[in-house]
Amino acid sequence: MKKIISMSLFFFALVISSQTFAQHGAKGHAHAAGPHGGTVESATEGYHSEMVTKNAKLYFYLLDANGKTAISKAVTGEVLLQFADGTTKTVMLTSSGEGFVVNDPKATTFANAIVTFQNGGKTVSVKFKAPAKAADNHNHQH
Predict the structure, then answer these.
(1) Coil/strand/helix, residue 70
(2) Using CA atoms, how far apart are residues 86 and 115, in angstroms rounded to an integer?
(3) 139 - beta bridge partners?
(4) What's the CATH code of the domain at 116?
(5) Which residue, of 11, 58, 112, 142, is most buried by count of CB atoms within 10 Å of its CB?
(6) What is the percent of the chain where pLDDT is above 70?
(7) How many CA atoms lie within 13 A of 134 on its CB side?
(8) Could you count the other beta carbons within 10 Å of the beta carbon of residue 58?
(9) In a domain, 13, yes or no
(10) N- to C-terminal Cα distance for the chain?
């Protein structure tokens, strides 16, 4: 009987740990919306970063492990924009209050955006994929 209980507990622990691993797998774990209403991704050095698209511009925020804005005057950054046609462009980030703005009219059309922050001697990097486009419902049937 003890052997059956032990095996049951082992199996239960295995199932729970595999579900946890799947949630933190290759795509990373899911984050709630950031403090500025944007998409949050895990970055290096224990940081997170938030991306917001607003008024046809991209904004990036460096966040600490608790999701709070971690900005100081010493933080600088740049973003490598990769486009669907295979071209790339590196743009310096411009300080914008608590975060940074990308001053490039083509920036919101990226396929991937790799952001690199310099913060107190640490290099923090994060990758964002373009948000999924909303489905085009113009050709549906009624």
Answers:
(1) coil
(2) 18
(3) none
(4) 2.60.40
(5) 58
(6) 71
(7) 3
(8) 24
(9) no
(10) 61
